[in-house]
Design goal:
damaged DNA binding; nucleus; RB binding protein 8, endonuclease; mainly alpha; 144 residues; RBBP8-like; Ctp1_C
Length: 144
């Protein structure tokens, strides 16, 4: 390539980058994007320690055992002061047996309620019209 073509190509690349940058910056500098507060439960990252301190505290299963002995009023104060778990919305609990790896046995599935056993066997569906008799029963065969 000649030096003229290379310089034109570089100049074109710079223009493309500035256009892309102008397009993207307008999106990131928008005040609406920064100031939105979502009204539905979600996990949100809070980066500053002071901001995290302002969030309400909640408990997990292990912490619930620790806080069980406290009176309700003292419990709320303790949670607000030194709770390890803080978020705007309390996350749902992990389902039972979620972290068990592998397939459970059939007996375990029945105990957990994944499989329901019916005590009565399934009835055979009845035909609306009976089969046509093509042969007579064995006891009534004709002897020749």
């Amino acid at each position: 390539m000649s030096t003229v073509k290379k310089s034109l190509q570089r100049h074109g690349d710079k223009q493309d980058k500035t256009k892309q940058k102008a397009f993207v910056e307008s999106y990131y500098k928008c005040d609406e994007r920064r100031n939105t507060v979502l009204d539905f439960p979600h996990i949100e990252v809070v980066r500053k320690k002071e901001e995290r301190k302002k969030l309400p505290g909640h408990t997990c299963k292990e912490c619930e055992i620790y806080y069980a002995d406290f009176p309700e009023e003292e419990r709320e104060k303790k949670l607000a002061a030194c709770s390890r778990h803080r978020s705007r919305y309390v996350p749902p609990d992990t389902p039972e047996n979620f972290w068990e790896v592998g397939f459970p046995s059939t007996q375990m599935c029945v105990e957990r309620g994944y499989i329901k056993e019916d005590l009565a066997p399934c009835q055979r569906p009845k035909r609306r019209q009976p089969y046509n008799v093509m042969f007579s029963p064995k006891g009534k065969e004709q002897k020749t």
